[in-house]
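Journal club side-thread
Mid-discussion, someone asked how the predicted structure for our own chain would compare to the paper's figures. Pasting it here so we can look after the session.
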Amino acid sequence: MKSEYQRPVESRYLDPVEVVWYATAARLGLRVRRNPSIFSMTDGTGLLELGPKDTLDADDCTAQMIFHELCHWITNGLETFELRDWGFPLEAELDWREHACLRLQAHLAGSVGLRQVLAPTSGFREYYDALPEDVLAPLAGWPHEEKVVERAREAIARAQGEPWGGHLRAALAATAALSQTVQPFLTTYRSDVEGDELPSLWSRRQP
């Protein structure tokens, strides 16, 4: 090798699942950008800002965050694309539509065996994990369940139509296929981080 040689960098490695979900966001008119000062935000013009990857927990990924935001949009309505944060009031501690969104997320991810793989990344996981197999079954002890279930039912129906249906089905099918591909390798996978005994998120895939 010549001493003055510098290898040209002509491409970039991309995580395959991120490719799927970044592309899905773009197909639905969203521009995803990183912003170190926030967790997630939409501005009403198609900009979706997410916090840095290094702020995520070990079982979180960008795909989960984009998927969750798309579920917000579907749940809150097509017109909320043009509203900041899908029309959630900024001062509210919890809007009941959040729980309806989680039910939609569980339904869509569960349809391809990825209910735990594509779970929410925040404290709302408590509600998500409490959901029964029938995502439209009310939960005891949680507020506004009648409204939540009805909105979730509407969102599930809405998710099948335009503009989301075809793009979501393609993204979920691709993610499920990638999950299936790595399954035979999980038994012999070893982390390169010493002492890391956490199993792969892909091991939470359901048949």
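Post-session note: Residues 165-182 form the longest helix (18 residues).
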